[in-house]
Write a structure and sequence with these properties.
Length: 447
């Protein structure tokens, strides 16, 4: 189903979510086991891999190059959806619509802090942007490496980073059980900034060391070439002696270890990277941030290693990750009751919320300048063929689709007891519908 929806609508996760919705509402034990713990655990691992992969594909130099312009676009794309989402959900809750749909619970019995937290969680889920959808569609049109492609990917990445920080705060609020307190917000913020600083700083330091080594190797090339002729004469005798030594120590333990490592070097390196990323994810959650932010930053750190990135793409991205991601989005569908999602009232509120969610991201067209690149050729390739404001509309349309991270935040908020089932259904509807709108609008503007 994911492959089918990818071909038809360029939105793979909708098909996977639909399958989870259908299978999750069957009677227990019909086609799925009654205890879905194993499937949910596999989905959690899958989303960690998905976020780690997003970090692994981040180019820190591009982020720096895009600079304040992308940060401004991302800031508007976060603040406006967060504010409008909060206002909508808070208003609907105060009007007792949520309580009535939940089963007639008196709104006076709900604490004001619970209503506020639920509205914040719903608005925070709309602050994210699907970088995976944007990158895939721009790659198909051949504009990913242009100035506007860099601007969109950087702004979307910054949106996701802030959304992950918000997810850490929401999870902390839900886990505290005592509402909003100063440390409930401050601790996740400090932990998140620390996690980001260590990971991104380490990546930048590694990149500098590699560039220095590359420059020093280039400077020493002439010396090496001048000495190579002189070494060849003496190497003949040395090589013969080394051959004798290797034969004598062939059964040595160190030799066996070296041979074993050489044979399985790629597997060992890949396993080490995955263990380090998983450990950093656990550390982030232990410190009060989000484990997904830890996985993302760990991916950014390892993005400096080209060989590890290639191994991950070959062994995980192409073979394992699609199935794990599909299981995760299906498990989100498990939590959505089919009887509720088909109710006219919930469906109607979801459509209204989707319109608000789409317009709140489209506001970013005001921030984007008419000319994104100073070079005329690149400007023509990156979107201004459709008129003076082509680049602006392209950025605005690209930011509408929420995708995987928005659904993840809704799922986490409901799991933490922060969001009611009815609010979760309305917010999920808005994310799915706005994602479809965003895919269609972005495709239209690019063409």
């Amino acid at each position: 189903m994911g492959t089918l929806f990818e071909e038809l609508l360029r939105c793979r996760l909708v098909g996977e979510l639909l399958i989870g919705l259908l299978f999750g509402n069957l009677s227990p034990g019909t086609l799925l086991p009654t205890d879905k713990t194993l499937l949910i655990l596999a989905g959690e691992v899958g989303v960690l891999g998905l976020v780690f992969e997003a970090g692994l594909g981040t180019d820190v130099r591009r982020v720096v190059k895009a600079g304040p312009r992308a940060a401004l676009v991302a800031g508007v794309g976060i603040v406006v959806p967060l504010a409008t989402g909060f206002g909508f959900m808070y208003g609907v809750s105060k009007l007792r619509h949520i309580q009535e749909l939940e089963g007639g619970v008196d709104s006076g019995k709900r604490e004001l802090s619970d209503v506020v937290i639920e509205a914040v969680a719903s608005g925070a889920s709309l602050a994210s942007t699907s970088i995976a959808i944007a990158v895939t569609m721009m790659k198909q049109q051949g504009i990913l490496d242009t100035a506007i492609g860099t601007l969109i990917t950087t702004a979307a990445m910054l949106d996701d980073v802030v959304s992950l920080i918000l997810l850490g705060i929401v999870s902390s609020i839900g886990g505290s059980g005592s509402g909003i307190r100063p440390m409930t917000v401050i601790q996740p913020l400090l932990a998140s900034f620390g996690i980001i600083l260590v990971g991104v700083g380490g990546c930048a330091a590694l990149s500098r060391v590699k560039s220095r080594k590359a420059s020093s190797m280039d400077g020493d090339t002439e010396i090496v070439d001048a000495q190579s002729v002189a070494k060849r004469v003496g190497d003949t005798g040395i090589h013969s002696e080394k051959r004798l030594m290797s034969r004598r120590h062939r059964n040595d333990i160190r030799t066996r270890i070296a041979v074993f490592y050489t044979r399985f070097a790629s597997t060992i390196k890949l396993a080490g990277m995955l263990i380090a990323g998983f450990s950093y994810s656990i550390l982030a959650e232990y410190l009060g941030s989000s484990r997904l932010l830890g996985a993302f930053v760990a991916g950014v750190f390892f993005s400096a290693f080209e060989d590890l990135k290639q191994m991950y793409e070959e062994q995980i991205t192409d073979k394992v990750q699609p199935a794990m991601s599909a299981i995760f989005f299906a498990t989100i569908g498990f939590a959505i009751p089919l009887t509720k999602i088909l109710e006219p009232a919930l469906f109607g509120w979801g459509i209204v919320y989707a319109v608000i969610a789409s317009l709140s991201k489209l506001v970013t067209v005001i921030i984007v300048p008419a000319r994104v690149s100073e070079e005329k050729e690149e400007e023509e390739e990156s979107g201004n063929r459709g008129g003076r404001y082509g680049a602006r509309w392209m950025v605005g349309a690209a930011m509408i689709a929420r995708g995987e991270l928005g659904l993840l935040m809704v799922q986490q908020a409901q799991a933490q007891g922060v969001m009611s089932q009815t609010s979760m259904v309305i917010t999920t509807w808005s994310i799915v519908l706005s994602t479809l709108v965003g895919v269609g609008a972005f495709s239209f503007v690019m063409k």
